[in-house]
Amino acid sequence: MQFETTLNDETFEISINPDQQTAQLxxxxxxxxxxxxxxxxxxxxxxxxLFKIDNVSSNGQNVEFTFDGEWSSxxxxxxxxxxxxKLGFETMAEKSxxxxxxxxxxxxxxxxxxxxxxxxxxxxVAILEAMKMENELxxxxxxxxxxxxxxxxxxxxxxxPLLEITPRG
Length: 169
Hints:
Strand order of the largest sheet: 1-2-3-4-5-6-7-8
Number of domains: 2
CATH topology of the largest domain: Glycoprotein, Type 4 Pilin
Order of helices and strands: EEEEEEEEHHEEEEEEEE
Oligomer: single chain
Radius of gyration: 18 Å
CATH architecture of the largest domain: 2-Layer Sandwich
Distance between the termini: 32 Å
């Protein structure tokens, strides 16, 4: 299985062989063991290192999770999506790229931009309080904020649309 993953603005080429429990990361082969536990927790063993993965959620190509307690988000493209991209076709995930959904249930503490504002990809646009932590939600693309669907103080559910951005370019 082939994947392309973008994490913290760095792109990784990943090839996974689950039968042999090996993964190639940017051409380097690693043995791994992935153990699924109760309540959705995963333990990932690479060599002698053990990592805890919790709170996994996905929305199209976007995956959010905690890795050893730190919130992370990644964009993951599978073989089919990579092929469609290479051939110049737009996937459903790319068509909805300007929609920012709530990554988890919580309360909107602040909206950092107004409708009509120009934003850059990765620029903070809202603050969501979840699990007693403040989470900065960032613009999924460059563009103009067309619609904000929530107000400060609103409680939101996971994957609820918060705002929509018309992408530039």
